[in-house]
Write a structure and sequence with these properties.
35 strands, elongated, mainly beta, six-stranded antiparallel sheet
Length: about 450
């Protein structure tokens, strides 16, 4: 037996043709390849330029998909806590608040609302506050008034027991605000505990939990309307409207830092941002600002990065626009341009951004063989997820869709150097990991192995 361990040359072979909206709305004339969709983000005070790549520790950061950001902070207090006294004594100012993340387009990740056996049917629940913790649930943030004037509060779902702006109770749906940032606190009292079927990946996922949302508009702004389920984009009713921005760190002097790992062989990346790149590092090496500025266009950035066959670490210091904290600064996934890479046999979803990649991956390895005329050569791929095509020395040997992934390659082999190619196609599970559905499955793909050749007389 000859184990075929170590690194194989790899090449990404995208297959998801999105011209007809089969894989993402709206339709795009592209084959969807490797993309960075999940980011660790962390806010740091001050705007001083970093001399070296900063470390972003998972314990200090918020992990979220593109478009999702910590627009609020939240805390739950026991039902026996007197909320009036709690607020009057301003104890909440020093309490342990947690980031509350959502997307203005897609709502709260993995909490879309009720769905039946056939999914959401293009619906996004516009009530982003999920009231299921028991006791009193509080949400706080800062809102930004672009100019002084009258603003209108719009409530959806459960009516809050209390709304405070700049520590003053709001009793009317219309308020007067000066230009700038303002404190916003929303209180719901005596909320019952509830659960949700989707968390258990139950197909028929009825959602009995109470939900709510408070959105603020400049006076005179058009009323929000539900998005047509036949529209080219799936979104909440707030997404296309001129609501005021929310950001718990609004007005603070500082920047957001982000990090993610690329795919093997990445040589460039395309970014669309609601903000500006201030600094960029790849594997600890800072990319010159002139290269970043030179790659910027009206539609985003296309930045060449140092090429390596393996996975690289990307870290960025960004200045988001007002109201785009955390990963909400990314309006789309970061598209990666890849050349030849290198991976060992195994689950490719463990390799950087490939956790979200569905498509093809070509594995190539040159193997030296010496055998007699009576020898039989069996190529055993071990486990493959999900299908594969095998070529030996440029000739098509077999296409396999199920176990056992074994093939006799005697007729294709030659003495000394042999070139073995395995083109693996994954399922759609990886691509659909960001979709709130019990049908998405577990990400798993690649030439899993163990891979070896067997020579017998």
């Amino acid at each position: 037996m000859i184990p075929l361990t170590g690194f194989w040359q790899t090449e990404v072979v995208p297959t998801l043709d999105n011209r007809w909206e089969d894989y993402r709305l709206p339709a795009t004339d592209e084959l969807i390849g490797p993309e960075a969709r999940l980011f660790l983000s962390h806010f740091r005070s001050g705007k001083k330029k970093n001399k070296t790549e900063p470390e972003i520790r998972e314990i200090d950061a918020v992990s979220a998909l593109y478009g999702y950001g910590p627009h609020f902070e939240t805390i739950t207090k026991e039902a026996d806590v007197g909320i009036s006294q709690y607020l009057r004594e301003e104890k909440y100012e020093h309490d342990s608040w947690q980031p509350y993340t959502y997307s203005w387009q897609y709502g709260v990740y993995d909490h879309p609302g009720s769905q039946g056996y056939h999914g959401l049917k293009a619906k996004v629940d516009s009530r982003f506050f999920i009231l299921d913790q028991g006791g009193h649930q509080l949400y706080r943030t800062k809102l930004y008034a672009e100019k002084a004037g009258t603003y209108r509060l719009v409530q959806e779902g459960v009516v809050p027991d209390l709304i405070l702006i700049n520590k003053e109770e709001v009793r009317q749906p219309v308020v007067r605000l000066d230009q700038g940032w303002h404190d916003l606190l929303i209180v719901y009292q005596n909320i019952p505990t509830a659960s949700h079927g989707l968390s258990k990946m139950v197909n028929d996922s009825r959602n009995p939990r109470q939900r709510s949302m408070v959105v603020i508009y400049p006076e005179g702004a058009p009323a929000a309307k539900e998005v047509d389920p036949y529209a080219s984009v799936v979104a909440s009713k707030w997404f296309y409207t001129p609501h005021v921005p929310y950001d718990p760190r609004g007005g603070e002097q500082g920047c957001w830092y982000y990090t993610f790992e690329t795919a093997p062989g990445t040589c460039a990346m395309e970014l669309n941002l609601n903000g500006e790149i201030l600094q960029l590092w790849v594997d600890g090496k800072e990319i010159p600002q002139r290269m970043i500025k030179g790659s910027q266009s009206s539609t985003g950035y296309l930045i060449p990065i140092p090429y390596t066959k393996g996975v690289s670490r990307v870290t960025m210091r960004l200045q988001p626009l007002a109201g785009y904290p955390g990963s909400s600064v990314f309006t789309k996934p970061v598209k990666l341009v890849c050349k030849e890479g290198a991976m060992q046999p195994g689950d490719w979803t463990q390799e950087g951004v490939l956790a979200f990649y569905s498509g093809g991956m070509r594995y190539t390895k040159e193997v030296g063989l010496e055998f007699s005329g009576d020898s039989r050569i069996i190529f055993d791929l071990g486990t493959v997820s999900a299908t594969c095509e095998v070529k030996v020395n440029g000739e098509e040997a077999e296409f396999m869709m199920r176990q056992p992934y074994r093939i006799d390659i005697t007729d294709f082999a030659k003495q000394r150097t042999n070139r073995i190619e395995v083109l693996v196609y994954s399922t759609l599970s990886n691509h659909y990991q960001e979709i709130p559905s019990p049908y998405r499955g577990k990400p798993y793909a690649g030439l899993i192995g163990p891979v070896h050749l067997e020579l017998s007389e």
